[in-house]
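input
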Amino acid sequence: MIKAVVIDDSAFNRVTLSRMIESEGDVRVVATAVDGEDGIKQVLRHRPDVVTLDLEMPVMDGFSFLRWLMVTIPTPVIVISSRASDRNVFKALELGAVDFIAKPGGRVSIRLEEITTDLLAKLRECVAVQLDNVRKRIVDEEPPPAPKGTSPLTTSPAPVECVVIGASTGGPPALQAILQSIPLLDVPIVVAQHMPPVFTRLFAERVGRLSRFDVKEGSDGELLEPATVYIAAGGMQTTIRRDGERLRLQVRERQAADLHAPSVNHLFASAAVACGEKLVAVVLTGMGDDGASGISEIARRGGKTIAEAAATAIIFGMPAEAIRTGAVKHVLALPQIAPAIARLCLGEKPSAE
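output
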């Protein structure tokens, strides 16, 4: 039985979330709280396995609660975000929240039960979260904007045409860390991060401000440009196809059978066909096996493959499944991944295995 504490200043939300969470019997709400201060009392009293957290609350907001929690009693947190706090979600992830869900319809919504399936799945995922790795990634201050205008690193002939990266739970802070530290490369980077619509655009805006790269949400028919990062649109499927000497994005509606949109497997498999051996693929933290079949296809066609090591992954599911295929050449801790990508793009061997 998974024990949960629900923190939300709306009585309606607390009652509705509690009913949703307990609907399938394997998760129990041991307490609710009306703000961050009340949340501290309930966490100290009940020591839950997971906390759901509203960000905008009186007395003590969600950010102050997160700072206290991750120092005092590290516990997996899922942010239940209202539309007004969309951009704040990424700050909460930097402070230690594991994942987030958007409230449909606003802060207090009769449509709240629409997120039941997603919420239960994320609560169960929290059992696999490696909290020590969450604490290592916490950033308590706003990172400064990255300097722009530097010339990208180039090599001729280019050994790599494109970099593709896949991630799920724990992915946004990991991706931000990679894209902030990697040198500006003369290749496009395409990212499939499991994330709902709207948030992929907001994430692109945030990473664009903090990295040297131009960062945008990818659109259908767009030609891939060097030194540019494309975030696959939430709720859609993004793939890569060859158009003569260039690479172009395809963005399509998700199909009924698609478990994830964007799908790492869809992106990887298409990139393998388009780029062959001139491709670098990276699987980062996340639950499940999305990316495993795609990275197998990339390896079969001669591409370079990297997976995040258990030592830094928030959830080792996706990297572990990718490694299990035998297709991953380099298993690296998060701080080693950016320099490894750079070296592979410059035709060199990564210095750390």
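quick obs: The mean pLDDT is 92.
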